[in-house]
Amino acid sequence: MEGAKFFHYKTKQTVLHKIPPQAKLALMVILALTSFALPAEACLAAYPALIIVSVALLGLTPAEAFSDNKPTIAYAVLLYAATAVMNAVSGTGFPEMLVPDGTYVPLLSRLALSLETTSIFYRTTSTGQFREGFASIERKLTGKKATPASDTLALALSFIPRIATFWSRIETAWKARGGADSIAKLTTLVPRFLQVSLREGYEKSLAIQNRQL
After folding, report:
1. In which domain, by residue range, is 175 found?
2. How far apart are CA 129 and CA 123, in angstroms?
3. How far apart are alpha carbons 82 and 89 in whole angstroms?
4. In CA terms, which of 19, 68, 101, 184 is 20 to 30 Å from 194?
5. What are the DSSP E strand ranges found in 48-126?
6. Where is this protein localized, as stated in its record (predicted)?
7. 102 and 136 assigned to the same domain
């Protein structure tokens, strides 16, 4: 779905959209880190509340609100698979070896809340606003007009949604040619994905260097 791209900025005129970039950056870091200090019960309660707020007050669709937590799902699957393998190695019988290990639920709940918090700021802050916020902080720290660190950091942040877009494009092309989900898909698409990402990064870095001349 086009409207549910990973960590993409969404143009709106909500209160959060209008907060100064510097304040947004500070809030994003504080809230994201706080998520990892909360008990699992608080995270599990706050996560759906944050989804509701995102949809009701920030103009996000449910798909957009949930889409940025794909890394959490992938991590959960990885942990589950690792647990199943460890259970099998330790001699646990079937089907007991497939019973999920609840010890990683607190970690996943905190990760989900932190990602959702970060997602909200990404959805309401453009790349230009991120750069402005970083640049303002860097100027205060260095006393210099040039902001090379801010430009680099803003470029890195802007790459997060771009990477998802790159993968979506080459995956769509693969499926359009009748390609199936298989090992061949990964061995074919991953090199192409890395090539496109590196080229985009190189072109972006040249643009930044030209602006600094």
Report:
1. 126-213
2. 12
3. 11
4. 68
5. none
6. Membrane
7. no
